[in-house]
Amino acid sequence: MPITPFEDLQNGDNKTFTINTPKSSAGVAQRAITIGDNNLLHQLAPIAQLFGFNENPAPGCDAISAASGVIGAKFPGHGTIAKKLEELTFKAPIYANDKVEVSVTVQEKLRSQLARLFVVVMANGHVAMVGHIVVRIPNREEAKQICATAEDASRKAPQVYTSDTQSPITA
To answer: Where are the beta strands (DSSP E) in 99-146?
Structure first.
């Protein structure tokens, strides 16, 4: 289970992960509707083209969601809590089938298990979003408790399948 405890992080630590995106413009539109973003530029290509997009762009919150998913489940990992979003800038759209990479760098360890992370979301080699996020990171003891609790829950939970891979995961 990916958790890097606060004590083990150093300023400058960096990891990059690839994230799946919707497979079609229809998938982008459905995702936008599901999250309540009914802006028609996510649903209708002619409207998106009026604003200079090649096709329906994913909602901006998808870039934030990709970053949040990496921070909370991969690096620093489970138990990490976002406390403050700082200076988020959207620089390029994310489209269906884009190769999306999320890079997280520990910019500065602060006090009380807080750290400022620098996050870059890339879409097909172009910067889609950059920003700083202040997070609270579990310490070693909390990380041990998270792992033990998750292991216990996985023994008791039924298996479910993810929609994109059909591989089993525990609920």
So the answer is: 100-109, 114-123, 126-136
